[in-house]
């Protein structure tokens, strides 16, 4: 057996360069690069190793470990999970800064390889700088925090351990059902230790997507159930996009006269003007999609994990006889809430399900209702997004301005706060992957870093990041990275002076405005933050606009700019779209001295009666 002597870190770097993926007719590197912030736990080992392969595997320097992992995750999502990135950090805070991002990837079923440094395997210098010591367990390190948010976790204490560990890691990262974050904790002394690795370990490997075909009996049972439906309805999740099933979904819906509601992850599965597309579904859903979801007797859930924002906390599907068909590569998701499972890839599953249904179509009366509801919603949505001259526009009015100046190939990126709900309802996605929302974990601070990852995945598309002032203040450092890497973003920063979304939720549950908007916080002096000046200090072009008309002009100019541009506009923190949507389960206190809370509690108890759990 031929061998080559390398340090463990060098073996990791060489192995990653040998992993390829086939997209269309192209063979591309599976790993688009490695994000690295070096410290004493990885600079000598991984730093030297990555320097040696820098021409084959680019290393990108970030400004925040969580931010760089967000960028890597967004890259994978924008690449339909067909390409991914790795992230390496020092031990201690460098490592634990990535734990939140690992949770983002875990919840959203997205691949990212995390390579945090770890303590000394030989324990001779213990405790080392930044080491977390357990008084009862000598094997614990800070990296144990990754265990609950990793699909696969391993700790390298000997150099040869990387051989099975990397093979297992790749099996998880490329598996459509188990896909998610992998953490390989790298003891810092082990990174530098050498071993005679078999050359075969570094042979080129081309990864192609595994397309799981449905079980014949599950398929037949699902087809029989759908044929019996009088009010069928499709919920399209992120699995549609990861599978590349948009065309098949469109054909399936058109052939059988079915209507589709899109989750946050599934939005852009169909063009907004496709006859079957009723827009968003659930808590932040359109009036059209939710009207059909409420009456549906068979819900065909394709590639969705059916989280509470999709199901209206399991109170949206009100038909007492409704059944769910769960078409999903992951049995865990396909079987939720007593669903009839069809464990399969979305593209293959829809194609074979369509064949099994033959010429069956949904009843004409149901189709007519769907068309009426869609027309009604589009007219309603326009009222919220039309141009205005108000001093403080709403989020929806800002979205309308961005939409009017956008191109069909643009990608809008967002994450947390009130914007996701307004975008879910109002944004008109024309092309697949044109809507990029991190709402599985609803992670504030994802937006700019995520936008950077999206741009790196496809530099040909204009990437528009929409972010509130709260999220911007939480994490903005990768704006500097976008300038440094010449990856241009257009950032629209909506300043409502606080956490406007949670303030509205606080009031809706009977609470007083407290500790959310800046004016309601415990303060001596209210900050007057110049966001445009701050963005300029990070190297971006920036300006503040005073109206929707000025915003549209600025957006047009930003499209021709040579680097990232941040456009700041003040907005009203109290206004949101009051049409469409659905109740969401947010527990209201049973006991309070305040009448507003007592009233909210009564309304809450009434709403709870609509929940259907376990059926």
TrEMBL record:
Coiled coil: none
Residue ranges of every copy of the Thiamine pyrophosphate enzyme N-terminal TPP-binding domain listed in the record: 49-127
Transcription regulation in keyword set: no
Pfam families: TPP_enzyme_C, TPP_enzyme_M, TPP_enzyme_N
GO molecular function: acetolactate synthase activity; flavin adenine dinucleotide binding; hydrolase activity, acting on acid carbon-carbon bonds, in ketonic substances; magnesium ion binding; thiamine pyrophosphate binding
Keyword vocabulary terms for this entry: Hydrolase, Thiamine pyrophosphate
Domain Thiamine pyrophosphate enzyme TPP-binding, residue spans: 417-569
Residue span, Thiamine pyrophosphate enzyme central domain: 219-353
GO BP term, example: L-valine biosynthetic process
GO annotations of cellular component type: acetolactate synthase complex
CDD domains according to UniProt: TPP_IolD, TPP_PYR_POX_like
PANTHER family: 3D-(3,5_4)-TRIHYDROXYCYCLOHEXANE-1,2-DIONE HYDROLASE (PTHR18968:SF9), THIAMINE PYROPHOSPHATE ENZYMES (PTHR18968)
Family: Belongs to the TPP enzyme family.
Record-given protein name: 3D-(3,5/4)-trihydroxycyclohexane-1,2-dione hydrolase
Organism: Microvirga vignae
